Amino acid sequence: MVEELYNKIGGDYAKAISRMQNDERIVKYLRFFLMDESYSQLENAMAANDCEGAFRGAHTLKGVSQNMSFEVLGHIVEQITEELRAKEFEKALTTFPQVKEEYKKVVDEINKIIG
Amino acid sequence: MEEKKTLLIADDVMINRELLKDIFEDSYKILEASNGEEAIELLDEHRDEISLLFLDLVMPKKDGLEVMHHMSLNNMISTIPVIMITGEATVESDVRAYELGAADIIYKPFEPAVVIRRAKNIIELYEHRISIEHELEIRTQELIESKRKIEQSNIFLTNALSSVVEFRSQESGEHIQRVKNLTRIMLRHWRALFGENQFTDEQIELIVNASALHDVGKIAIPDSILLKPGRLTEEEYEEMKKHTVYGCQMLEHFKQEENEFYQYCYDICRYHHERYDGRGYPDKLTGDNIPVWAQVVSIVDVYDALVNKRVYKASFTIEETYRMIHRGECGTFSPKLLECFDDAKEEFTEATQI
After folding, report:
1. Torsion angles phi and psi, residue B215, rounded to 5
2. Region B265-294: what's the mean pLDDT?
3. To which H or E segment does residue B105 belong?
4. Could you tell me the pTM of the whole model?
């Protein structure tokens, strides 16, 4: 079930298992992931043209996604993080919809198995 | 059994803390901080228990850099190893972390096996270092203490020995203390005038101690001469002059090769009546063949004799004494020594009036 989730969202299940030991643990972290506020921080800051705040949100989300081995999400968040770090807010604005799409996908899939 | 060691995990993201916690909580006690301020509070409260700090750089309230700054200010950086957690590996951020005193850096995402190994290594390394430093500190303290004791016994013995002579000469015993005091003043001025590196503080104190023994040879002078109230005859005076040589002969029984203190004692005993123009005794040394420490004790001895009353004479004022010494009425001294003597006048005046 968890492995399936990883396959659907472009995550690396093997890495996740090596880091978190077993599915039970992974599920615990999936719940934490839903509770994590860095995405909303990023989204709100993007809406408010707050480059600095958006960078912080993106930076955290990147670390979290990488730790969860959500490879696809992690990759696109890394991109927006670097754009925001370089203060290229216009570029980040065009990247953000992809972030949003990937994040939603991940959240939806997690919700499916956690219920 | 050994108590569990304590780790502090400071990261604002719960998932990151949980990951580390999962890795370590079986073998370590875990403290958690979700921002820099909490981390600082926990560090202050548990500084003696924390064996390792995992520190995220980017955190709300105070960030990782501020936490490290706090640790530096409070001397924690050398005892609590910090493993910096960072999302990206750039050379600049790595260098910066190490400059701030981080022991190591780990990159997200964590690899548990690697993180465990590094944490263990670093904790062991720091514990080892701290125990060595502690050991060293204890040894150093012991050394300092025993050195202090030796110095004190040294001072005590030189004072005791020199007071034997004074006691026999029926002098008050203050002359020795004054000579020591004035010798110290002169040497400090000498150092200030003629270069910082001439005498170390330690050397100055050795010479000061040695100066107490300048007249130790007088113990070998017969009472009839030593205690004679009137003027000495030519013959008696020749005998009296031998106290310089007698002093050295006594010291030679305990000769210590290459010992600085012995050398100062010997030189001061033997040469404190030599004159810069070569008309002194016992060896008629000239100029700077006379060791500086002997020259210093020589001028100090003369000065003290002039400003104080002796059995055979009244005392002179400081002004008169300075004038007499400059005119060469009481021996000749090197220009450098006289310059030093003038430089020290204020302190000599103070020391003399007490």
Report:
1. -105, 20
2. 95
3. strand B104-107
4. 0.57
